Structure prediction request, 980 residues.
Amino acid sequence: MTSRDAILGRIRTALAADPRRPELPPVAQVWPHTGCGVDQMAQRFLAEIGEIFGEAYRVPSMGDARRKLAEIMGQEGCSRLGVMDRPLCRELTAAVAPAAIAWPQPDWTAAEMAELPAAVIEADCLLADTGSAMIACYTPQDRLLCYLPPTCVAIATADRLAEHLPAAWPAIAQRAAAPELRGEFVFVTGPSRTADIEKVLILGVHGPKRLVVLVVG
Amino acid sequence: MIKLKQHSPPQWEYPTYKPGETVALFIPCYIDQFYPQIAEATARILTEQGVPVVFPEQQTCCGQPAFNSGYWDEARKVVRHFCEVFRDYRWIVSPSGSCTAMCRVFFEHVDADPGVVAVGRRVIELSEFLVEVLGVTDLGAYFPYKVALHNGCHTRRELGVVEPPLKLLEKIRGMTFCELPNAEECCGFGGTFSVKMPGTSLAMGRTKVENIVSSGAEVVASLDISCLMHIGGILRRNPATRHIRTLHLAELLVAREETAGTTAARTGQEPGQRPPQTP
Amino acid sequence: MPTHDLNLEGAAFLKDLNAGLYEPAATRSLGESAERSSKHTRSITDAIPYWQQWREAANGIKSYAIAHLDKLLTQFESGITARGAEVLYAENAAEANQLVLDIARKHQVKTVVKSKSMVSEEMELNHKLAAIGVRPVETDLGEYIVQLAEQRPVHIVTPAMHMSAADVGHLFQQKLGEPFSAEHQNLTRIARKHLREDFVRAEMGISGVNFGIADTGSLVIVENEGNAGLSTSAPEVHVALMGIEKVIPRIADLPLFLNLLARSGTGQKLTTYTHLIHGATPGRKLYVIILDNGRSNVLKDPAARMALFCIRCGACLNACPVYRRTGGWAYGWVYPGPIGSILTPHLIGLEQAAALPFASSLCGACGEVCPVKIDIPHQLVHLRSRAVSEPSPMNKPLERLTWRLWAFAMGGPWRYRLTMWGVRLGVRLVPWIAWHPGKLGAWTRGRELPEVPRTSFRRWWRNHRDHLQPKLPAPEQPAERASP
Prediction:
């Protein structure tokens, strides 16, 4: 008998001895949906991300976003960017010198990617009530871009804003249910943080210390 | 029968009291033997509100110590006797939050018999009865001291009785209410816990005493004299805190301008030398 | 039956349960830290009007999940296998360790980076890896610190809560050769620098699992530092360790649990990184090891089932006045605090852990804060009833006899009065006995005994009942004397 059989068998036997059969409850409505508009959500998003020491800027056009990116690169002294191969990321980095852009290759190791000073990633969804950005990662390099470089710039359009996680969830859950999907969806809520030493909050312990979300539109 | 309206925090639905209905007093053993003045006060308070009271003399205990210690068979025997004694009374009032919780919340774990559970569900704590059932908050009490209120954990978390004692205290004339910091933290009594883990129990009690001292209170009142037995024991051990008295809320509620001063003498918790007494 | 050693090194308060003379020894900072966390979380949850509904809903979903555990596990297994993962089952710690070591050998692993996993603590995995020459590196900052210090974690969420910044500074100086600093920013930078080298070179990453989602076959890991993200994406191999009870039915349930866990665990709305992992990432290998290790014992005890609802948030620890004073090692095994007291006896047996459920004043603070509404106080009393009647160190015939006599005494008014007469006599005599042995000394060591009044209430009642005239209402409203 395999361990699998033994464990499942034990579980079945124990459960069979108990007459209780609780029903599957309906999906809980966690937060009410107020149906608020993009401007309200954007405002909330900016405020929330600020609370957790992230940064967000809402800009009217991609051109403004590019200028912001250049500003950030200047502030951080970045000569190189690791950029996710996604449409918005391509648009955002269109004005950056090709030599300064590193498009992660499938054979890139973590050691190589650790040299990148900054990352540009695409957020598929923004959550207004928590200041979170959902990044869909399909390859190891996508994932490492979110965690390794000390500065991380996420780009999204304003129509990707959702009130909160439950509001965004049906679409996300549907994507997640696709059996061919690989990688991860990571919800990033501010920069990396820890309070493990005397409960004093410190940013950038392993993940990025500086997280910037650019919201276009 | 008192029905549970909500689980967290607990809220109850009380039956309506018909004027003149008799109330049976459930007096926990430690009050009967060590703090009879609390039971006396309870009887007087209810009588003054026009409630006829009886004390069924066959009563002994609610079974809580055995139940909490895991001796459920033994607890069941005592619980069954309790139900025998109180079976015929529609109203059972007790000046103890923790014993009331045992009856109303935990009887069903000891004995699933619907008769047992039904009796348990008729037990009501004194301040609950006054405020939630009779709708009375002003008893004409006068107690010119600084008073902090200690909530026993079972009273707070199993019965959800937090507002009634506050409402009663508010109406006591001459009294200054002192807010107790960290009021929700356990005092460390916990029944047999106090002697099974005395080190931790004392550490918790000393923290409670620190909070009492910082509140500026001269008197600590509670619905649970069991907690106060432990807190008071610590207060009286230390000369610096010996002056802080512990009283059941009922004792405050019978204090009157005419008897001010004698209440202090009547609390009976005098420190220092005690002459031997013949049993 | 799994064999575990209940480490009584730090469990002095359990050893002394019979003597009852344990003095709490937790450092003040741990207690204060736990208290602050608890208050912070409380103020947040009090402000959410839906909090009680959420708890109720989560309790219902967990109740279903545990009642259908075998079905959900197999559903999860087939889902995540279809997504490229290899799923393995382990009955106990020894088997789980063997599986991990086999994987390590197969992939020629020399360094392992680990993100937080309580299951791996149950397994004592680090020792086993080290024994075959594989270097395990804890990457959660608190775990990293206690690993360097060769200590056990004191708290499931904040493992190094007992150490000051200066302590950590000395530790880094001693073990990492870094210049001494007690500055939090510096210390964190040092840890980041050292751990980054390990992240990029490690061949294997080991993580825990917060939730296994049955209908999609996904894994959920929540964290704040980014170390779980790195541990699970940098190395070639990711081994996820999951207790059987971690599976939840639907992906639709996740927002509820995330909202509860983040707030109860760390007072946040969402943790910094919430990973929804869809099976193996192309170019990486994913192993999921599903571990029983005594959890199915809980299922044999129908009244105890809710102990498996736990989502490991740590809120009960922070709320517990006993934990705050005795600290994380005092509970002897992996899980401290209230959840430890109600889980450890099932996982490693009453013969070893029977004392734990007694280490509580039953104040109920834990049950009040549990996000999945486990009735922890009732679980404690339930385990006490088992401990005194089943084979265990708390099963003492003499004690049972005492309680039998007590029940007899409380069985009728005359027996009661006789017993109380004896108790009053005893309390009167106690001050006159200079030396208080055993349990009696337990009370009087720090407390005065109550006064013995001259008369009992019974006697007073007999003398006064006829004088107690209720003030009847005015004649316009005739009183109705309802019969009892």
Summary: Chain C has a mean pLDDT of 89. DSSP finds 23 helices and ten strands in chain C.
